[in-house]
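Example 3.2
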Amino acid sequence: MNQIFNNTNTKLLNLEKKIVSFLTYHVPFLKLYLYDNISTRITLLLIFLGALAIINELFITIDMFFLSRSTYQELKKVTNLEDLLNHELLTDPKYFAKEIENGNEEFETMEHFFKKPVHVSHVSVFCALINGKDRFQPIMDRPLKFTFEFTPEDFENSKYSQDYGCDLYHLKLKIYHFFKDSSIYKELIEKGEFDLDNFTLSKNIFLYNPMDELMDNEKLNQLPLCFLKIETGDRLKCELILK
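Structure, written as tokens:
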């Protein structure tokens, strides 16, 4: 028994020496922490625990990615965007944290948390100015480009969980204000060719998602962008109809 113990101990010491030699050669600054047996073993233990934490985080990230991608694929298969208004990820309590007692919260399971689509943090919108008086012809050769970045203030009043970010109405509202603040709008006002006093979100702004689906239903305005097949960094098409 002692012989077996001694052999095992010798192998572990040899393995330790090889690891220390490898680390000091490739990571020279670790020599500062490997100056005696106790310091060496504490350092090796911390490196081992750190490596386990990184590996665990990596697997969690991979799991989250595939669950989230699966949700996006499911959303993209929906042909009628109005059907997304009753999606279980928006209505089922199991996907959200809930208060239990004394201000404490019970959070959703890891699987349910990762299954939720990630909120949209920024998008680019290309707005074509369309002459609604004359056969809906483009007014400009190139569309206006607006880039929007969303912060928590942009979705604090959302009907649904703030986890899902900005809703469609808020994005349309940003397009509306960016257009009215643009130099092109001022030029159009000066020319007086169109009735811009009655330019509204519902009648003049027509926004499409990346699947080229028109999002003009009033009910859809409450939906978060991530439930309308939109992801961070997407380029959206928009038509501003001037009459």
